[in-house]
Specification:
With about 350 residues, this protein is an alpha+beta fold. The chain has eleven helices and eleven strands. Strands 1, 2, 3, 4, 5, 6, 7, 8, 9, 10 and 11 form an eleven-stranded mixed β-sheet that branches. Strand 1 and strand 2 form a beta hairpin. The longest helix has about 40 residues.
Amino acid sequence: MFFALRDLRTARGRFALITGVVLLLSVLVAGLLGLTAGLAHQSVSALRALGGGDSTFVLPADEDGAVDLDRASLTGEQLDRVTEADPSAVPLGVARIRVDDGTETGASAVAVGLGGPVGSLTPPASGEVLTSTGVDDEVGAGATELRVDGSALRVTGGVGDLWHSHTPVVVIDLATWRELAPRGGAATTVAVSSEGPGASGGPAAQPGLTTVDPGGLVSSLPSHRAENTSLNTMTYMLLAVTALVVGAFFAVWGMQRRRDVAVLKALGASTAAVVRDSVGQAAIVLAVGIGGGVGIAALFGVVAPGAVPYVVSPATTVLPALLLAVLGLAGAAVSLRPVVSADPSTALGALR
């Protein structure tokens, strides 16, 4: 590593440039992952809360499979057939509503039948409501009553930071939900035992219905699928760009060091030693650039949590750092192969 460290000290400008590029790419990748996680939380955190147990979910189906959650509506007859096949089934309702607080605050009502709980959500009694932190921020955390579409509901507790389709959530009982969202049908979906769908005559066997696992329930929300696919595609492209940029830089750097590498090998340095020296130098550049970039992205998520939906977690900090390091080292190693495998006498002769 002596030669690598000496080169870093003597060519500060060159290595400061590539370190800065790696830092910016790291900010973009980590920031995009944090934003993706934040948007996903504000889109499907309520559905994830429902899917936190061992239940599967019955949705209406057409010839293409499960109907999108935005269009899902179970009739009373369908609901009766499901509950007959699985007496422990719990109907669930999801619908957009409007809170009458003078500001036309939009919210999503998640209703759980009194046979609950489902996942981490337990239904309140009739005439009561559980509010999320997003609703509390809009109407005030000390509110004891919530008026929804003309109906007064008594606030009896909270459900944490839950969202559905980027609107804060209130949890109510199914009967109240049917009054507030009459177009939603008897229920939106039904939580059934995970052992029931596979049984003969179970919910999966009912015509016009299908069952999905908790992941399938989340995927049934079309807006979440669209935004998640787009943001993940951008992340993959940035990861590929990072590998190419780092590889291209070290390829040019390797060609400029041909004489130095040839001298080292002529003096007895092994190919393995030259590889360790070169990759070690790349590792130093990547460690500084990636560490700084991921740190900046994480700091942004900590100091500005309300500005944009952003999540700081190991998946948005440690994971992108590891991916960037692996891809950067791979690009550096591949780009150095022609140089370190050159014959010392041939290389020295060619550079006279």
